[in-house]
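Data deposition worksheet. Section B asks for the primary sequence of the deposited chain exactly as it was used as input, without tags or linkers unless they were present during the calculation. Section C holds the resulting structure in token form. Section D is free text for depositor observations; keep each observation to a single sentence. Incomplete worksheets are returned to the depositor.
Section A, Depositor: J.P.
Section B:
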Amino acid sequence: MGLQIDIGAIVANWKALAAKAPGARAAAVVKADGYGLGADRVAPALYRAGARDFFVALAKEGRALRPHLPDDARINVLSGHMEGQDLTGLVPVLNSPEQFFRDRAMRPGQPFAIQLDSGMNRLGMEAAEWAQVRAEALAARPDFIMSHLACADEPDHPANAAQLAAFRAMTEGCDVPRSLAATGGILLGPDYHFDMVRPGVGLYGGMPFADAQQVVRLSLPVIQTRLVQPDEFVGYGATWTADAPRRIATVAAGYADGILRALSSSGASLYADGVACPIVGRVSMDLITADVTDLAGSPAHLDLICAEQPIDRVADYAGTIGYEILTALRQRYQRTYL
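Section C:
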């Protein structure tokens, strides 16, 4: 069955997150090809639902997305104005005085936005840098000023309040729309919402939006099922040995398809109609093996991502986060959009 993507669920998640910040404009983060799910399908659906502001990481992503959205959709590029890039039809989010002066020299009168560093120390102008260019930048009328929270998925983390205070201090009196909250920030409450919110992973069914509708189902075709006798092993390195007669199914997917090798012997399962079939042996490049002894018959496919094992549970088994599970999904899957 391949990779099943519920566009309706993405739209419902966007609406639900937007409703949590009723005083703010709800944008949509569609970087990394819509978190691996297809920005050319996700962004137009969100536009039809009312989104007008979209965020990508790179100008290349923005150029690829631009033909799929009407002219009034704003595509903001989080990496800003990198030297030599074509920003036609895009809005660079400028991260440094260098980017600001480059952009104003090369794109006078064209739209831009500003990112400030409120404490994450990753992208954006620090307070002293912002003070140097603030007057000139505000005179040029940026579309908005934004920053990004480092620990929004931990509501009690002191960094949240500290970054909020820093952002307020740097933007007080600016009279420009402000944006601080992505998915986690939306859930922190109204103090963090400002004029625009930027839901990302929550759109795609990921934590920390626990109430999200599930977006992805990943069904893997079974190539072969065999009986393995006691003391016989399965897979590379002979890391798993049968302790009794077991039926083992081999499915057509592996780490070349973005299914992390760390899922080997992790406790993760593949599922058949709600029944867990433990992954046994190592995840290899193109193949995964699972114990289907408890099933009545031989399944035609097994699910890795499903209602019983959503993306963040898969991530827990792999020792990572739901973002990586989503964005690791490769293009070899046959994709079905609902």
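Section D:
The chain is about 30% helix and 20% strand.
The mean pLDDT is 97.
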